[in-house]
Structure formats: structure tokens, C-alpha cells
Known about the structure:
Blueprint: H1 2-29, H2 37-56, H3 66-76, E1 79-84, E2 90-93, H4 120-132
Antiparallel strand pairs: 1-2
Helix pairs in contact: 1-2
Amino acid sequence: MAILGTAFNAVGLIFLTHAVYSSSEHTAAFPHSPLPLDITIELIVSILVLSAGIVASSPQLKPIRWAKWGGKVAREGQRGEGRWTREGEEILSEGDGFAFLGLDNGIGGDGEGRRGFWDVRGKRKEYTAWVKKGGEN
């Protein structure tokens, strides 16, 4: 499907480029007249072909339920694809999509949960204790 999607994207891009050029030339030559029907149809067709190409070349979709996907990632862990970056790091697939944030998602970590986020309940308890103490430091 990747070759078909690439072909659709190439053809759609050529049609879109031609339609944009034609509309620019038409607007420059006839500033107060609407676009001709053939240019409008070419624009619509190019958008449809490009959309089909993008859909055909897109990777497999993830499950809609994030909890299901997160559980699968936690059970199976990250797997190497056998490809490497220029810096020598292995490209991993199906890993934690939010690992770059450095947060613990509560699955198998230190149990801290959403580390790095402001603990509203804890701050509320601290404030309540501060008010009961008389509001002094």
C-alpha cells in the first residue's frame, strides 16, 4: 500500500500545483472574475487524490482505548525494529508514547504515579493545615 499511497500523493501534488498556478494566473489576468469551473474541479480532485494517498500510506492505527494500548506496552515492553539512527541508537517501536516527558505512568515504576505534576490534593491538605494553625509560617 505504501507504493500506491506514494503514487497517489505524487499525482495529487502535481494536480494541486497546476491548479494553484492556474488560479494564480487567472486571478492576475482577470482580477474580478470568479475561477473557471475546470480549475475548481482540478483543485477538488487534487485534494481528494492527496487525501487518498495520505490514507493509503499511513501506518497501522493504534487501538482507540489508550488503557488497552498502555497495558499492551507495559506487558510487552519496547521492541527493537533492527534499524538504527545515525547517532547509533536503536529505533524502538510500540514504546511508551509519553516516555520523552520523563513521567512515571504508574505501571510498574516506583508507584509514584504522575511524577512531575503538581499534587493538588497534597497542596490542599497543606493549606488546610496552615489555616488551622492560624495562618502563620
